Amino acid sequence: MYELIQAAENTFYINSPSKIGVYRSSAENVWLIDSGNDKDAGRKIQKILDQQGWKLMGIINTHSNADHIGGNTLLQDRLNCPIYSTPMENAVIENPILEPSFLYGGYPFQKLKSKFLMATPSKAQNISLANLPDGMEIFPLGGHFWQMIGVKTPDNVYFIADSVFSETILSKYHISFNYDVSAYFKTLDFLETLEGTLFIPAHAEPTADIRPLVETNRAKTIEILNELLQICASPKFFEDILHNIFEKFSLTMDPAQYVLVGSTIRSYLSYLCDMGKIEAFVENNYLFWKTTEPSL
Q: Less CB within 10 Å around the terminal CB: N or C of the chain?
């Protein structure tokens, strides 16, 4: 882990639990794409930069999940580097308690304040203000989180963050976090149109052809949606739906999985409701979900 791998002439990545992009804009200067999951990741990144004799010009955070911004604070404090992302992601980067608060739907209890769900704060700026290297492109990747972005380096290498997950992760966990299902499907369609030298997802192996992995992620999302339509064939309230999902896919609940999977299932239900496939109604002071059309 934390091995520097060259992907193209000036494009590298650090192989870590959440892959970290490195673009060399000159012989001495580099940009990071994300910073890992904690201050230890930050230390390891700094060690790699020092070994190469590189100066860190800035960090681009694709989004504000804790495992993508966890090294920000240490690197910014030690190297005085600017950090850039989109406005809504910056709100979480600067106020990390917003992540567990959003996932839980209220003030998070202590077990939800772990480094897995809550990074340390760092100062961030709008990506539109960044003096990026010539030829570097930023593009939106809606769906997974508020305003997630991807980065294309001048080497035609795409860093595509959490827009897709590996087959191994999907087979084990089944439900990858998703905030806006409609936007997510649009992102998958967009990824299929891209032509690049290499695609580097944060949680899958780099590949020259992203289309098969896109289709795997699309199929898993549709599988979950269809499962919800079956579960809600008779009226269900949310906790019952969530229990059925955990049982169906043999998942193990803990506080973190409760909020991550629970938030995602709420987003799936919203998507189905807005499509007219499921209705939400209140009875006896319960909010129920009931399938109205049993197929997508």
A: N
Instruction: Give CA–CA dist 217/174, Å, rounded.
Output: 10
Q: Which domains can be identified in the chain, with CATH numbers?
A: 3-162 (3.60.15.10), 232-291 (1.10.10)
In sequence order, what E strands does the chain have? Answer: 3-6, 11-15, 20-24, 29-33, 55-60, 83-85, 125-126, 137-140, 149-152, 157-159, 198-200, 236-237, 278-283, 286-291
- Are 24 and 30 within 8 A, CB to CB? yes
- Backbone phi and psi for residue 11, each to the nearest 5 degrees, phi listed first: -110, 130
Structure confidence by residue, pLDDT tens digits, 60-89: 999 999 999 999 999 999 999 999 999 999
- Mean pLDDT for the stretch of residues 261-274: 98
CA distance 99 to 89: 10
Q: From residue 161, give the alpha-carbon distance in Å to each of 10, 36, 65, 67.
A: 19, 12, 11, 11
pLDDT in tens, 138-171: 999 999 999 999 999 999 999 999 999 999 999 9
Q: What pLDDT is attached to residue 296?
A: 86
Sheet holding 236-237, edge to edge: 236-237, 286-291, 278-283
Q: With beta carbons less than 8 A apart as the criterion, state whether 173 and 25 touch.
A: no
Q: Whole-angstrom distance between the N-terminal and C-terminal Cα of the chain?
A: 41
What span, in angstroms and rounded, lies between the C-alpha atoms of 109 and 293? 38
Report the distance separating Cα 85 and Cα 16, nearest Å.
Answer: 21
> How many Å apart are CA 11 and CA 52, to the nearest integer?
14
Which single residue is written with the structure tokens 């955990």?
246
